[in-house]
Amino acid sequence: MDHNQNWYRRGELNYATRIRQVLSLAPDFLEIVTWNDAGESHYFGKIWPDSIAGTNIQTYTDGYDHSGWQKLLPPFIKAYKAGIKDVSSLIPSDGKAVSGVFWYRPLLKSASCINDFMGKPRGWMNAEDSFNLVVLADSRASEYTINIYSGYDMLAWYRPVQGLNSWSIPGLRIGSQSIEIVDINGRVIASGKGTMTVIGDMSHGVCNYNYQVVGF
């Protein structure tokens, strides 16, 4: 990266939005063109180190595994190939009651990043301090409760419907980020916790707006 390539484009729930649009429009051809695009930080698969050798791109991607986004692909691909347009058909492909992924930026929008020689990325003001969540639920969805925790508090809770559910929850707080899904008996049937805590400022290192992505 250099000064001319230090920029930020907001994403939030773009992934879930595109899934709904693709199924609705039913195009003849679909390609995921950013599968290992480490330089733009919206990669889905493994990063090829030889493609970014000699650059500082690894600084922005090390520890930021995005493979959790793949959790949504098998049921989506199956529905797309079958010509199904209703997202209620997108249930977990692994036989589990629920599955999904959440993502967040470990650095708050308000961070000064004064010690990063490149400063904050262009477009940083468009970022949102939000907890982004997509859940796939089976036919018993109405019996489940989704609890979202940010910092030391519960940020929100939801009751899903069958199929694809998505939320972008504002108010991300400093500290750990996690999710817990319980059934009607209070039994935890799925959970996930981010390996990176959210911080309010960057006193050293790069001003990294990459997402932490957590599959569950």
UniProtKB/TrEMBL annotation:
GO terms for molecular function: glucan endo-1,3-alpha-glucosidase activity. InterPro entries: Glyco_hydro_71 (IPR005197). This is Uncharacterized protein.
